Amino acid sequence: MDNKRYHLPMVDVGIGVDPSQRVVFDSAPSPLVDAPFDAPSGEELTEVLLHAAAEVFAEQGYERAGVAEIARRAGVTTGAIYSRYTGKAEMLLAAVDLHVPDEIQQLLRSDHPGESATDVLASLGAHLVDDLPKGYGLFLEAIVAGRRDSELAAAIRRRVEDEDARLAELVDEATTDGVFDPGLDRFATVRLAHAIGFGMTLTRVMGLDLPESEAWTTVIDRVIGALAAPADQQGSPNDQSSPPSGNPPHTGDTE
Questions:
Q1: pLDDT digits (tens, 9 = 90+) for 35-67
Q2: DSSP one-letter code for 6
Q3: Local confidence band at 70 (pLDDT 50, 70, 90 cut-offs)
């Protein structure tokens, strides 16, 4: 879906209310909306809300952003927001997720049949210079806001720890395949990957120039190559009887 702005009348879509049966205008319908009016619903309405939220968070910051302003820009009532989200913290995280490219989400959260772990890591690195949605910098806004909001900080930490676990799996796989040096600390390797990703996010938010895709990919491949096992250990996956040292922190499940 594109980032179009919906100019809509106020629509009450609270829990237990059929949106098609309850449309409430806060004023006369806008002349920009032709009858009959079809309000977005379901996933489409969620995207409209999150695009509006991303816009407001980016302009006003987390602390100043108001749910009422987000609702106004999305053309819905605040009830439509509170029927989906507990508050600004949850909405900000949902907006962050919406603006993470599908390709990166898929690489981090799914299997990769036919691709090696190093192929996946190289793809993750290469995507860091792709054209990204404007709201991608919301992650930094969330981090800054989390310094003053313990609930938000805890939620961000859980997200990062989930990525830690996925990256650790890829490092383990590359080590077991005899590609990565088993003597390297796994946690240090995971943190290196995150440092590169976070650093590129900061680079974008600051408006700094990005390298050409081909040049960047060459550097990423070189970095991954530097993690290789010594020549006399490569291609001997059966020699790796245990995963590398350095466990990422526990991913948040306390039970």
A1: 334 555 678 888 899 889 988 988 888 889 999
A2: P
A3: very high
Secondary structure element (H or E) that encloses residue 197, with its range: helix 186-205
Specify whether 25 is located in the same domain as 134. Answer: no
Length of the chain: 255
How far from 32 is each of 29, 70, 123, 204, 243, CA to CA, in Å?
8, 20, 44, 35, 61
| pLDDT value of residue 18 | 41
Sequence-distant (≥ 6) Cβ neighbours of residue 157 within 8 angstroms: 252
Whole-angstrom CA distances from 67 to 89, 140, 168, 196, 232 are 11, 20, 37, 33, 60
- pLDDT (0 to 100) of residue 130: 82
Confidence band, pLDDT 50/70/90 cuts, at residue 20: very low
Chain mean pLDDT for the chain? 75
Q: Name the pLDDT band for 170 (thresholds 50, 70, 90).
A: very high
The answer to whether residues 12 and 79 touch, using CB atoms and an 8 Å cutoff, is yes
Quick check: bond before 230 cis, omega within 30?
Answer: no
- If asked whether residues 104 and 208 sit together in one domain, one would say yes
Same domain, 230 and 118: yes
Q: Give the type of residue at 35.
A: A
Q: List own/partner pairs for 215-219 with CB under 8 A and 24 or more apart.
A: 216/125, 216/126, 216/128, 216/129, 217/122, 217/125, 217/126
Q: What are phi and psi of 32, to 5 degrees?
A: -75, -10
* Residue 233 CA, distance from chain mean position: 36
Q: Are residues 172 and 193 in the same domain?
A: yes
Number of domains in the chain: 2
